[in-house]
Amino acid sequence: MRSQTADPKNSSTVTEFILVGFEQSSPSTRALLFTLFLALYSLAMAMNGLIIFITWTDPRLNSPMYFFLGHLSFLDVCFITTTIPQMLVHLVTKNHTVSFVSCMTQMYLVFLVGVAECILLAFMAYDRYVAICHPLNYAQIMSQKVCVRLVCSSWIFGMVNGIFLEYISFRNPFCKDNHIENFFCEAPIVIALSCGDLKFTMKLIFVDAIVVLLSPMVLIITSYARILASILRRASSSGRGKTFSTCASHLTVVVFFYTSAMFSYMNPRSTHGPDKDKPFSLLYTIITPMCNPVIYSFRNKEMKGAMGRALGIGSLAQAESV
């Protein structure tokens, strides 16, 4: 039930949350949304699952770029599984309640996977920089041991940062309204329901977002600035087109993911609202994970060939030589 006062002394402690999400939509609209999101979720799971399978089993994709791509797809699978199945259930049921512990767990998993993906995208940009600007030393710099360490460090940083964000998000008691104006427990919205010094908590979230989002973005921008300078200086016109195509795929993913994450965690809460939060939340929780395989795979002839071999489709396999 809604609590009518924000005074901790006069309010009952919140023990559960209600995800409003699309609760106010008509039954026909919810049915349409359920069908749409179920299709998108199934498509994202299938495509990311296929990429995980072929990058980890196809010997022709034995390179750092595909090693990172496989782990990116695994992170995307974890990301959408953390939020979308719950939303699908709430679209067809009247009970939109989640326990306090479930909300905490979901927020931690979103923190973990989201931060790990931010770091991994930066490492993928660095991998492209080394491949294009230092091709003779590429195998030595990006050895298998180095790649494993980079992936592990992204997971470790995500786990540690997730613990920090979880602590500052739930350090204050919750004694206000327990209705979350979104389809999952998103940190800034949940924090706004707590008592205590919210400005200090949001400042910590903002500072953490600078480290987690802007620091990797600086590495990404620096890497691609040097790649661009190297391409314009010494590559042929055909080589430029191929390199630009590869880099454009990665940059497209970065723009989608970082734009939506920055809006959610670096904008003042006064600029937010249900109509603004939900579209951006959908962008980085389901649209980006679904687009990643399309952006990376269907613009890459080696991936097309590997997908054709995995599915036994000759036409796709022949695309490798087109």
TrEMBL record:
Membrane topology of this protein: Multi-pass membrane protein
Keyword Cell membrane: yes
InterPro entries in the cross-refs: GPCR_Rhodpsn (IPR000276), GPCR_Rhodpsn_7TM (IPR017452), Olfact_rcpt (IPR000725)
Intracellular or extracellular location(s): Cell membrane
Coiled coil regions in record: none
Pfam families cross-referenced by the UniProt entry: 7tm_4
GO cellular component: membrane; plasma membrane
Transmembrane regions listed in the UniProt entry: 31-54, 66-88, 108-126, 146-164, 204-227, 248-267, 279-298
One Gene Ontology term from the biological process aspect of the record: G protein-coupled receptor signaling pathway
G-protein coupled receptors family 1 profile domain residues: 47-296
Keywords of the record: Cell membrane, G-protein coupled receptor, Membrane, Olfaction, Receptor, Sensory transduction, Transducer, Transmembrane, Transmembrane helix
GO MF annotation terms: G protein-coupled receptor activity; olfactory receptor activity
Tagged with keyword Membrane: yes
Record's function text: Possible taste receptor.
Family: Belongs to the G-protein coupled receptor 1 family.
Protein name: Olfactory receptor
Organism name: Mus musculus
Classification lineage: Eukaryota, Metazoa, Chordata, Craniata, Vertebrata
